[in-house]
Amino acid sequence: MRTNLIHTDDVSRVYVIHENDAWVEPLRREFEAQSIPYSEWFLDEGVLDLRASPPQGVFYNRMSASSHTRDHRYAAEYTGAVLAWLKRHGRTVVNGERALQLKISKIAQYEALTVFDIETPPTIAAIRRDNIAEAAARLGFPLILKHNRGGKGLGVRLFLSPAALAEHLGSPQFEEPIDGITLIQRYIKAPEPFITRVEFVGGRFLYAVRVDTSQGFELCPADACQVDAAVSAGVCPAEAPSEKFRIVRQFDHALIPRWQAFLAANDIGIAGVEFIVDERGRSFTYDINTNTNYNPDAEAKDGRRGMGVIADYLGRLLARSREQRALRTGTR
Ligand SMILES: Nc1ncnc2c1ncn2[C@@H]1O[C@H](COP(=O)(O)OP(=O)(O)OP(=O)(O)O)[C@@H](O)[C@H]1O
Ligand SMILES: [Mg+2]
Q1: Rounded to an integer, what distance in angstroms lies between the CA atom of residue 301 and that of residue 27?
Q2: Strand order in the sheet with 143-147
Q3: Which protein residues have their CB within 5 A of the ion that is ligand 2?
């Protein structure tokens, strides 16, 4: 599918930048319910004419780090080019260039989180498969392997021993990350098997959702000492069964102001921040999702609707950008 980036009707609207129709469907419904004019830029491939100006409007970047797994190898790079173009023309963008940079590199996320005193799991990066064993020996076991450019739990596996890791590295199950960078990360053992994802829209706290990880990371006790039983554990809310997700009624956390400051400083308006709590009660933030999805069944039980809040937020930004333009051009 090719997207024409230039509109001739000059009606300002919200533009959603993405490459996965299924994840945009709930947002489309909310735009329609709230009568917000919108278009989509499906950026898998196409033409970007830098001589032209982008249309008027508000741009919401939902590009996914896992786009290459849907045969959209250059979607993130294409989005980077489009975001640079939008920036040059002074357009309002939600989740801009810096957000994309963080989206496609967990290393960039961790370094930026650390600036705000937000603790991340101890991590070593290995560039190319041959260097993973050495990095693992430095970090120690148990450890997690994951892709620097992740999403959907790409390459997320738990290893308890050097032998299990060596076997995996020599097997066809090893997945080469698209950017060549594998992260070797300390396994944070949670006393209860869940992680928490904290959702922000327009920089404001929306809600926190608890994700049950017992299916993903609980090792069969019988196998516990010889675990090659590495398990994948992606937590895409749009695709997971409902019981796995539960919105926390009353959520508060000392890190909320720091997460907010981090998001604001990194051009991230909308995101889900994932953290895990270890046995000593320490919180480790390990993933920032800038193309966040919400779990429909958990939302139905709770009553709050994330995509409704996003549509409302984008609608307000659109109204504001129209006002500003009217003031500039004197058409009011
Ligand atoms: N260091 C860790 N210790 C314990 N569990 C972890 C750790 N890192 C990841 N996990 C588990 O693996 C899941 C996926 O990891 P992560 O979010 O980093 O990958 P991802 O590719 O960004 O996945 P997604 O797009 O589904 O969020 C986490 O939600 C968590 O359950
Ligand atoms: Mg995650």
Answers
A1: 19
A2: 123-127, 181-186, 143-147, 157-159
A3: 274, 287
Q: Ligand 1 within 6 A of 267 CB?
A: no
Instruction: Report which ligand 1 atom has the smallest distance to the Cα of 154.
Output: 21
Angle between helices 162-169 and 132-139 (to 10 degrees): 160
Q: Cα(155) to centroid of ligand 2, in Å?
A: 12
Euclidean distance between the first and final Cα of the chain, in Å?
38
Which of 20, 67, 276 for mutating ligand 1's site (highest number of atoms within 8 Å of CB)? 276
pLDDT tens digits, residue range 79-120?
999 999 999 999 999 999 999 999 999 999 999 999 999 999
Residue 28: count other Cβ atoms within 10 Å of its Cβ: 15
Of the candidates 6, 9, 5, 14, the residue with the CA atom closest to the CA atom of residue 321: 14
Model confidence band, residue 228 (pLDDT cutoffs 50, 70, 90): very low
Confirm if 66 and 103 have CB atoms less than 8 A apart. no
- Is pTM, for the whole model, over 0.70? yes
Dump pLDDT digits (tens) for 17-59: 999 999 999 999 999 999 999 999 999 999 999 999 999 999 9
Ligand 1 pocket, 275 CB below 6 A? no
The crossing angle, in degrees rounded to 10, of helices 256-265 and 106-115 is 120
Ligand 1 binding pocket includes 216 (Cβ within 6 Å): yes
